[in-house]
């Protein structure tokens, strides 16, 4: 009896230790992802104040955000390879240290050039290293609760975007140097969190001792997996065009609300994100359920069909948001509907890509997929900044609708011409 009691106690203690580590790790990574997504919003929320402080035009202001996304796009494939080559804990720690340092140092920038170096390059490179390793650790630790854990993890993005945007808008309104406080608060907290990650984050043994593939081989196979599938190439281009719309919108929408509706920075930042992401959350739920239902009925192109619905409807709605600028209530409603239809695309764009890529090459192929998409999307802030110097904001935002339509056209070609062949090819390769 004593022996059985000892075994029970030991098993219970080890189980609790494992459970604790699983959820502690998720909590640690949740905060890191909160900071990663949230600090992306600081610049957009404080853009008018930074512009006034430095006395520069919209073109150079847009260039800062564009450099960030170019840096992210350039390094994000290496983030996927690093997750397989090195201890994922230390990839996460290094990436987080780089991007929060970039945010914190940006508060001391005395010129646009230094802002580009810190917030643009250092921040962008650091952020590209974190997500792949983080999700890999979560999936490894939560083998039986993967969907729940990843859903909780994804909530960090929404929380970070909303809280950091609103807080930064408020801090930016406190005076000429208020925008610097926003970068210092979140960057400084991030530096402290790097220490917490280094001390308390525990990587599962299966991850820590995993076989290390060669970078050249992973890059080659990932490239071939993508390049030999015309539907995957078209999806990459469509993702880039939709990213152009998304990044352009997020960068300049707070400024539009400040100028178009004469809102204070904190209110503008709040309304620029809250309605879109509330609608987006509901759209993701609806889009995922709809595509799953169509998939169960045997429709091969179910996920691409949902992508197409989202992209076609985003085109007029992103234009409608600025056309209704005379009323905050109407603008908020348009933002919510825009977020909802965008959610149909957000729920399915990765899953639709994976359906034509053989499983063993998906990580490498996705790195290239994201690289191409973010490189194209990175052009949006500087393009809209240039357009703002010669045209009204309504005209600048109308260009975003054109990019969504172009993405929809490419998706339609992928769906009707290439998908069936590439889908069957992927099934044969998997077997």
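Q: What amino acid sequence fits the structure above?
A:
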């Amino acid at each position: 009896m004593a022996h059985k009691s000892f075994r029970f106690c030991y098993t219970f203690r080890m189980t609790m230790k494992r459970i604790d580590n699983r959820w502690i790790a998720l909590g640690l990574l949740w905060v890191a992802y909160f900071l990663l997504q949230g600090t992306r919003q600081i610049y957009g929320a404080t853009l008018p104040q930074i512009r006034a402080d430095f006395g520069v035009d919209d073109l150079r202001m847009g260039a800062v955000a564009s450099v960030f996304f170019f840096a992210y796009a350039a390094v994000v494939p290496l983030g996927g390879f690093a997750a397989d080559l090195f201890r994922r804990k230390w990839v996460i720690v290094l990436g987080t240290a780089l991007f929060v340092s970039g945010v914190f140092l940006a508060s001391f920038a005395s010129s646009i050039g230094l802002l580009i170096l810190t917030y643009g390059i250092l921040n962008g490179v650091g952020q590209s290293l974190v997500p792949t390793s983080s999700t890999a650790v979560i999936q490894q630790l939560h083998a039986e609760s993967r969907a729940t854990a990843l859903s909780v993890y994804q909530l960090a993005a929404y929380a970070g975007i909303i809280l950091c945007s609103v807080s930064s808008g408020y801090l930016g309104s406190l005076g000429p140097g208020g925008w610097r406080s926003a970068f210092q608060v979140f960057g400084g907290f991030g530096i402290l969190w790097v220490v917490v990650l280094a001390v308390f984050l525990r990587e599962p043994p299966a991850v820590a001792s995993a076989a290390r593939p060669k970078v050249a081989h992973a890059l080659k196979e990932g490239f071939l997996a993508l390049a030999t599938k015309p539907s995957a190439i078209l999806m990459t281009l469509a993702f880039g065009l939709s990213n152009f719309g998304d990044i352009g919108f997020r960068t300049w929408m707070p400024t539009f609300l400040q100028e178009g509706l004469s809102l204070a920075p904190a209110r503008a930042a709040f309304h620029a994100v809250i309605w879109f992401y509330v609608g987006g959350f509901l759209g993701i739920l609806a889009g995922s359920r709809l595509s799953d239902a169509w998939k169960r009925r045997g429709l091969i192109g179910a996920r691409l069909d949902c992508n197409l619905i989202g992209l076609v409807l985003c085109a007029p709605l992103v234009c409608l948001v600025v056309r209704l600028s005379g009323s905050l209530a109407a603008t908020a409603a348009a933002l919510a509907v825009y977020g909802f239809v965008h959610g149909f695309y957000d729920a399915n764009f990765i899953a639709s890509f994976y359906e034509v890529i053989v499983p063993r090459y998906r990580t490498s192929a996705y790195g290239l997929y994201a690289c191409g998409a973010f490189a194209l999307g990175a052009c949006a802030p500087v393009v809209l900044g240039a357009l703002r110097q010669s045209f009204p904001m309504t005209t600048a935002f109308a260009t975003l609708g054109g990019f969504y339509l172009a993405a929809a056209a490419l998706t339609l070609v992928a769906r009707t011409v290439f998908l069936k062949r590439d889908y069957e090819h992927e099934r044969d390769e998997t077997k």
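Q: And what stands out in the fold?
A: Residues 89 and 203 are 6 Å apart (CA to CA).
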